[in-house]
Every structure is written in C-alpha cells, then in structure tokens.
Design goal:
Strand order of the largest sheet: 1-2-3-4-5-6-7-8-9-10-11
Number of helices: 1
Strand content: over 45%
Pfam family, one: DUF2490
Radius of gyration: 18 Å
InterPro entries: DUF2490
Keywords: Signal
Organism: Flavobacterium zubiriense
Protein name: DUF2490 domain-containing protein
Oligomer: single chain
Helix content: under 10%
Distance between the termini: 27 Å
Length: about 220
C-alpha cells in the first residue's frame, strides 16, 4: 500500500508543480469536496463544497455550497435527487482589479445512473437548475458523463489508483443556448471503497473564451 500511495503522491506533486507554474498564465484552482451519506438502502443525503480561485489559492472566484436528498430507484443506482445550492461569486470587472460580488440561489433536480463494463465505471448525470439571481431568473440544463478506470487493480476498491475523465455540457433554455462545456482528465487514489482523492486539469469552454482549472477533489461516501 505504501508504494502505491507514494506513486500517487508523486503524480499529485507533478500536477501541483505544473499548476504553480501555470499561475503565470491564466490557470485557476478549484478545491472540491463531495459527500454522500446513506440514510438507508434507498435514501441518501448529498453535501458538497466547492472553493474556486482565480489562482492557486487566496483569490476567490466562487464559493459553492450544495446539498440535497436523493432516492435510489434500484439498489445503489438510478438516483433521483432534489437539492438546493448557494453560490457566492466575485468576478473581476473587465479591465480593472476591482471585483463585483454576487449571490445566487438554486433549486435543482437530477438523475444519476451508473454502469460498469469490465474495469470501466461510467456515470451519467442529468440535471435541471432553477437559478435565482438578483432581479433575474434562469433555467439551465446540464448533462455530465464521467469515466473512472482503475489502473493497478481490477476494481475501484482499497489502494486502487485510477484514471478519471469527464465532460459536462450546460444549455440555457433562453437565447444563447450554449452556456459552457467542461472537459476534465485526472488521476485518483482510493483509500477504501468510501474515501478517495483525485487531482486533474479541467478546461472550461465558454462561448467567447476558455480557461484551465486545476482541481483537487475529495470524495467521501459514508454507509448508514
């Protein structure tokens, strides 16, 4: 286990070094926590914190808090969830060093379905967001597709090092339907079946520009 953990830490350091060097360009950094608490065999509580920075840390871009209650239509799969999110953003005013603080409240509904083909773990997530901004309301649709593939083991269990990738597209229901697309690749380490860490690079593509984001993620799934 020690050698496997050392290998993962070495790869993580490489990611961190690349990100620190990239601060001279336009690469941001997101620290992400995803928690899932099983209430019983059907019900679960989702909780999530995302701390997003314009640089490696300290220059806040956005703080996102998300929670929700889910229900599995089948055993450990096909999860329907109703949730709420609070988003505090601090974007820069174009051409200045000044920031504009904004707050947003969201209600969202989502459906997650998981599949496995050999070593390849696939997840589909379909999400609808009702976004309440200051003096505005928006409706947005999202589709998320992710792949996890263990490298040193056949399954995603204890001590597994895995490759991870995802793509997520955001669609507005009004004019300018294309909102953004996120493409990600990274590596992760499973401490056990319920706890894993992951690091990688995500490219966020908007209608008029794109920006790279380094991501450090923690996943914690607690049994009831």
């Amino acid at each position: 286990m020690v050698n496997k953990l050392q290998s993962f830490c070495f790869l993580l350091v490489l990611f961190l070094t690349a990100n620190v060097n990239a601060q001279k360009t336009d690469t941001g950094n997101w620290f992400l926590y995803f928690g899932n608490q099983k209430i019983n065999n059907r019900w679960n509580w989702h909780n999530e914190v995302q701390y997003r920075n314009f640089n490696f840390a300290g220059d806040l871009e956005q703080l996102l808090l998300r929670t929700g209650i889910g229900y599995n239509l089948s055993e450990n799969n096909n999860n329907l969830l109703l949730g709420y999110a609070y988003i505090h953003s601090e974007p820069y005013v174009a051409g200045t060093d000044d920031k504009l603080e904004t707050d947003e409240h969201r209600i969202f509904q989502q459906f997650i379905s998981k599949q496995q083909f050999g070593r390849v773990h696939i997840q589909h997530r379909y999400r609808v967001e009702e976004r309440f901004l200051k003096d505005d309301f928006k409706l947005r649709l999202r589709y998320f597709l992710s792949l996890n593939v263990p490298v040193n083991k056949k399954t995603m269990d204890k001590n597994a090092i895995y490759a991870s990738a995802y793509n997520e597209i955001f669609i507005n229901t009004e004019q300018n339907q294309f909102d953004r697309n996120r493409l990600y690749g990274g590596i992760g380490y499973c401490f056990n079946q319920n706890f894993k860490v992951e690091a990688g690079i995500m490219s966020q593509m908007l209608a008029n520009n794109s920006r790279a984001q380094f991501q450090i993620m923690i996943f914690n799934s607690l049994p009831f």
